[in-house]
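For reproducibility, we list the full input for the ketopantoate complex.
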Amino acid sequence: MRVGVVGLGAVGSLFFNRLLHHINPRNEIVAASSNRVFALVKQQHLRNLESVAIYERAPGGQRTPVLQVPVNAPPNALSLTTGADEHVTTPLDVLLVAVKSTDTVDVAQQLAVAATAITNNPTISSIGLQSRKNSLLISLQNGLGNVHVLQEQLVTENVLHGVTYMGGQCLSPGHVIMGGKGATILQGADHLGDVQQKHLQRFCTLLDAAQLPTQVVNSQDVQSVIWTKLLVNAGINPLASLLDRPNRCVTDGASNHRVVRQIVDEVAAVAAAEGIPLQLGGQLPLEFTLGVANATSTNVCSMLHDIRAGKRTEIGAINEMVVYYGQRHGIPTPTNALMVDIVRALENRRD
Ligand SMILES: CC(C)(CO)C(=O)C(=O)O
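The corresponding predicted structure, in tokenized form, follows.
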């Protein structure tokens, strides 16, 4: 099967690297494999990529590669593409969207333009050509609203929600420090056609083989999965960003617990008003969130990573969405609103 990954940040790199490692770990010239994986990379990054790697952080702070795949020559070099390369000639079966939610509109527009160019001029080959008919797009992004944007911009129903609790810290595209192993959950394709259902089945088998265990949930249960992850992100990301520390910091001390509890209790109240049951495994929202913070304790969360890099964060797709849905139901969400303002202040901070 042919898989594309757009967005080589932490999550995109973890998935791309493991898939490439499964398909061709030593960059050998192999007889045509039935599986290929492509990553969409900007031209300026393409030049510098000799290998892709996943690292583990050792107790002393050093990092050691736990998986490294050469991409310095074909065939693996052909897996990295700007999206307009001649060799990317056949449509993709699955495109994993792993860009930050702040970039979803931009990326969706680029994919839509590429798809239109191909329809008008079939001699152009581009990774964008995947998105028209039978290909499946899977959004593995934080926050709310991404799937809707992809569906609207690409005029397709073939977009599925995905959620991952795999954490990581991206050093540069294709280079990522592992930040905790967690589940990956994908929406089923039960509401789509046979072809898309088959693509999803094969994709999950491929992910399993690449040591990326994945669960599939029915479409009607997917909102529970998304809102549970929203709760976790809303509880961990702003406070860890404010404290400028890895995730474990939110578990330190009663006052941190109080902040997290107020945030996640508001999320739970809004989810209940939306009629969405959360999947907390019998725990309270606070306990569940602290459990994830412990499981990803050394990870620098994505929001803090953005703040440190001077980029816009995903606060608009996370805590601000809680405020928005809260207003629709008349549910007060003052702590989430405060987090939005604090994170915006961090984004706008000048030296
Ligand atoms: C689960 C968590 C909090 C891991 O860091 C994450 O999703 C993120 O960093 O955005």
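The chain has two domains: 2-217, 222-348. DSSP finds eleven helices and twelve strands in the chain. Both points were considered when choosing residues for closer inspection.
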